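Why do we care about 3D structure at all? Because function follows from shape, and shape follows, mostly, from sequence. That is the central idea of this module. The next example makes it concrete: a single protein chain, its amino acid sequence, and then its structure expressed as tokens.
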Amino acid sequence: MFPFQNRKKVLLSGWALLFLILFVGVGGNNDAWAESEGVEHRHKIFLFGGASQEGSEIDGSLGLGYEYRFTELFGVAGMAEFTSGDIDRSMAFGIGATVHPYKGLYFLIGPGFEVVDPEHEEREELFLFRLSVGYDFELTPRWSLAPEFNVDFVSGGETTLVYGLVLGYAF
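And the structure:
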């Protein structure tokens, strides 16, 4: 099951949207804009530890990411995720728009791609579309811990579930 048939067009649109958001966000005085929108820390780096599940196969996953908050409500994020074990996926990369509607609750939606491990078959890059939900629990004003659940709709492959904990540092 994959919601978009023209994956190249959607992926290019995603990259164009990210570029536009970053171009508009980087221009001007963002510090004043962020302060007026109530954003204390606009940048966040995070580590993900959890599991990836394709069908009945479950393997460990580690990830790195970065989020830039434009306002208290909206941001943009990028991620790189690595999976070990028997499932075909070895890496996934993506970008997305983030929404923070209530306290620590957040949602992410965006395109990316998955790299299929050459040990299982010939190296292949597949388009994916990720939906995520998580809840940041503030440990200190800069550190947070969040349970996170992701669904990756992969073209030409199974839907992948990715779940675990995210340790974040805001600055």
